[in-house]
């Protein structure tokens, strides 16, 4: 008997005009499980993420988080309910320091936003927590830098740090290693593996690199033209016809080449290829 | 240490800036003795009030990233609040308190309603709404002349302790007579100092950090779990209240409230320039911007008159420096300062250009 799912989508659908970008996706994610979501560009992976985390409203279907229907909840209330989302394009507070970025996420989680007349710098508990998380993602030495001065790889690590600070029930990573150099990507992947070892949390991962998925994922789901095309063990899904077809016959046991950047606007919604 | 907490740990961040700020503080604190004379005292009081007003606007513009054109409307609401309190309830400190509190509550309520209906949508929409509401309010004030005195405004009596007729003690201190006018100045100075320090605390509070996050990336602020609209509305109300209180102090100082003095769109533009010239997103910028601006407004004509006399005989120059052309030069100074200091005087001094 598998544990009760922490996140479920039932017939989740979104239509843009006449185009169905996500087509009745029904799927469940259990605590402690790392699920990779794959599919060609425009398959609706990021749109599926946006529907789950509330960046765009669903046309039909429901999203359940820990047994609660959150389909109509705002993005911020979904986050407070335990959904942690990292974005495909780095999405941070550029002119604040690295430490402040993480501190804000801790502050949001603890609901310490409406304190008007205390000093932010007096909350040492928050600063200490932020410092600890930064050490964990190997950014401690850059804590005082502004984010705009960081390298792309460090900014991606900071995205992970913010998610850790939110301490969510469900982590959602949208291509966390996109654009990272070969020696930086493993750091982020190790962090995700660590989060998986923490247990009790579900991790959703959109990723193109098949070697990465093969090592990390417990399960793979395949989206194709917005619909769920396959769902199962990594080995069997990778070998299945639907994946071979979806990836246009590419041999998926080989590492996939870096995909072309997805069309705009990635941060909120993927424009499907027509 | 105590001083550090008083300024909420928000250090100026540049030695020159620190010296200038201390000089402004001391200059304003001892203005009646350092710069005797009615006119210079009036300039000092205006600097105090505009520092508070510009700081309250910076909370919105520089810290939260909201452009509002209704800020001077809230200033005016506070001014009329105190004025109506003193006019209707008689000259007394209780009347000032009731009038100012009434103005602050009215300003907060109006800011709340404007925010509720327009901060959910795009920022440009909020700016347009504030422009429309501020214009409508100005028309209303001039139409309801039974209450507001219309275009002429109205004068009123302030508590006797705040008038020149009231003697604190016989004789003079450093050549300054110790009368109610001196008390009035320190009433305004203290009020503005408290307002400024309160605003400085707010921007350095956990709440202030969230406002900066919203300014930087509202999409992400929402995505990490902050209800962005609530914070924007709260910031709008807070800055409206601070502006209203500054307006109350201004009315008491002027012993008069009228549309040109407390409600005109020119003041709105002035405040916007003060914040931009001083440096957006830093409360110290409001201090620098307001001080520079009010001094330029008050004394540029004198300086030009002197220059015009000094260059007499030279071609063109005396005409160029004719005191009647002071607005032209004020404009030139602003264009140059925005061009050369895009991050404001404070940003420049901190080396963040």
Q: Would you give an account of this structure?
A:
The complex is a heterodimer of chains A (274) and B (353). With 274 residues, chain A is α/β, with parallel strands linked by helices. Chain A folds into two domains: 1-82 and 168-274, P-loop containing nucleotide triphosphate hydrolases (Rossmann fold, 3-Layer(aba) Sandwich), CATH 3.40.50.300; 95-167, no CATH class. Chain A is built from nine helices and ten strands. In chain A, the strands form two sheets. Chain A has a six-stranded mixed sheet with strand order 6-7-8-3-9-10, with helices on both faces. The longest helix of chain A is centred in the middle third of the chain and has 15 residues, at 152-166. The N and C termini of chain A lie far apart (41 Å). Residues 260-274 of chain A have low confidence and may be disordered. Chain B is mainly α and 353 residues long. Chain B has one domain (2-349): ABC transporter involved in vitamin B12 uptake, BtuC (Orthogonal Bundle). Chain B contains 18 helices and four strands. Chain B has a two-stranded antiparallel sheet with strand order 1-4. In chain B, α5 (71-89) packs antiparallel against α6, α5 (71-89) packs across α12 (228-254) and α6 runs antiparallel to α12 (228-254). Classes of the chains: A alpha/beta (274), B mainly alpha (353). Chains A and B meet through α2 and α3 of A and α9, α10, α11 and α12 of B. Chain A: This is Amino acid/amide ABC transporter ATP-binding protein 1, HAAT family. Chain A: It comes from Albimonas donghaensis. Chain A: Pfam families: ABC_tran.
What's the topology here?
The complex is a heterodimer of chains A (274) and B (353).
Chain A: E1 7-16, E2 19-29, E3 34-38, H1 45-53, E4 60-65, E5 68-69, H2 75-81, E6 83-85, H3 98-110, H4 124-136, H5 152-166, E7 170-174, H6 185-198, E8 202-206, H7 210-216, E9 219-224, E10 227-232, H8 234-239, H9 241-246
Chain B: H1 2-6, H2 15-29, H3 31-34, H4 38-64, H5 71-89, H6 93-118, H7 123-143, H8 145-148, E1 154-155, E2 167-173, E3 176-179, H9 180-203, H10 206-216, H11 218-223, H12 228-254, E4 256-257, H13 259-262, H14 265-278, H15 283-310, H16 317-320, H17 326-340, H18 344-349
InterPro entries (chain B): ABC_transp_permease, LivM-like
GO molecular function, one term (chain B): branched-chain amino acid transmembrane transporter activity
GO cellular component, one term (chain B): plasma membrane
């Amino acid at each position: 008997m598998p544990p009760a799912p922490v996140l479920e989508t039932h017939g989740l659908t979104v239509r843009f005009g006449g185009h169905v970008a996500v087509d009745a996706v029904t799927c469940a994610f259990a605590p402690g499980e790392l699920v990779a979501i794959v599919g060609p560009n425009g398959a609706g992976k990021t749109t599926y993420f946006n529907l789950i985390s509330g960046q765009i409203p669903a046309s039909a279907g429901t999203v359940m988080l820990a047994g609660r229907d959150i389909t109509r909840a705002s993005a911020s209330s979904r986050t407070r309910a335990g959904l942690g989302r990292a974005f495909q394009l780095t999405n941070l507070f550029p002119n604040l320091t690295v430490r402040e970025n993480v501190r804000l996420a801790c502050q949001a989680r603890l609901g310490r936003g409406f304190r008007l007349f205390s000093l932010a710098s007096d909350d040492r508990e928050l600063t200490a927590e932020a410092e600890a998380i930064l050490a964990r993602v190997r950014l401690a030495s850059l804590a005082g830098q502004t984010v705009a001065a960081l390298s792309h790889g460090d900014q991606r690590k900071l995205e992970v740090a913010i998610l850790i600070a939110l301490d969510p029930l469900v982590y959602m990573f949208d291509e966390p290693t996109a654009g990272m150099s070969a020696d930086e990507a493993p750091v982020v992947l190790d962090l995700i593996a660590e989060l998986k070892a923490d247990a009790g949390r579900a991790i959703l991962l959109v990723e193109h690199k098949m070697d990465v998925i093969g090592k990390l994922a417990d399960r793979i789901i395949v989206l194709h033209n917005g619909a769920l095309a396959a769902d199962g063990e990594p080995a069997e899904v990778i070998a299945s016809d639907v994946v071979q077809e979806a990836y246009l016959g590419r041999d998926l046991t080989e590492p996939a080449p870096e995909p072309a950047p997805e069309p705009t606007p990635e941060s909120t919604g993927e424009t499907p290829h027509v | 240490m105590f001083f550090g907490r008083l300024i909420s740990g928000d250090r100026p961040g540049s030695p020159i800036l620190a010296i200038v700020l201390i000089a402004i503080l001391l200059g304003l604190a001892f203005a009646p003795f350092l710069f005797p004379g009615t006119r210079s005292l009036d300039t000092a009081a205006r600097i105090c009030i505009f520092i508070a007003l510009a700081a309250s606007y910076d909370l919105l513009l520089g810290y939260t990233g909201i452009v509002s054109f209704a800020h001077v409307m809230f200033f005016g609401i506070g001014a009329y609040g105190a004025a109506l309190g003193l006019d209707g309830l008689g000259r007394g400190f209780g009347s000032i308190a009731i009038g100012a509190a009434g103005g602050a509550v009215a300003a907060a309520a109006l800011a709340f309603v404007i925010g509720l209906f327009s901060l959910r949508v795009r920022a440009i929409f909020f700016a347009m709404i504030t422009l429309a509401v501020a214009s409508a309010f100005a028309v209303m004030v001039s139409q309801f002349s039974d209450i507001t005195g219309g275009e002429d405004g109205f004068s009123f009596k302030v508590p006797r302790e705040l008038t020149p007729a009231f003697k604190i003690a016989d004789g003079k201190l450093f050549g300054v007579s110790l009368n109610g006018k001196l008390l009035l100045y320190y009433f305004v100075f203290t009020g503005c100092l408290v307002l400024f320090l309160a605003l400085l605390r707010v921007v350095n509070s956990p709440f202030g950090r969230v406002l900066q996050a919203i300014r930087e990336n509202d999409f992400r602020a929402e995505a990490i779990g902050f209800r962005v609209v609530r914070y924007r509305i709260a910031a709008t109300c807070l800055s409206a209240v601070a502006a209203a209180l500054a307006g109350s102090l201004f009315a008491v100082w002027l012993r008069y409230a009228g549309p040109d003095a407390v409600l005109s769109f020119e003041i709105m533009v002035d405040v916007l320039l003060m914040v931009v010239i001083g440096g957006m997103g830093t409360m110290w910028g409001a201090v620098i911007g307001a001080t520079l601006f009010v001094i330029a407004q008050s004394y540029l004509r004198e300086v030009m008159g002197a220059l015009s006399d000094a260059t007499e005989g030279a071609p063109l120059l005396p005409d160029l420096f004719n005191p009647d052309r002071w607005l032209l030069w004020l404009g030139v100074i602003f264009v140059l300062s925005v061009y050369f200091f895009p991050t404001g005087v404070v940003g420049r001094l901190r080396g963040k250009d």
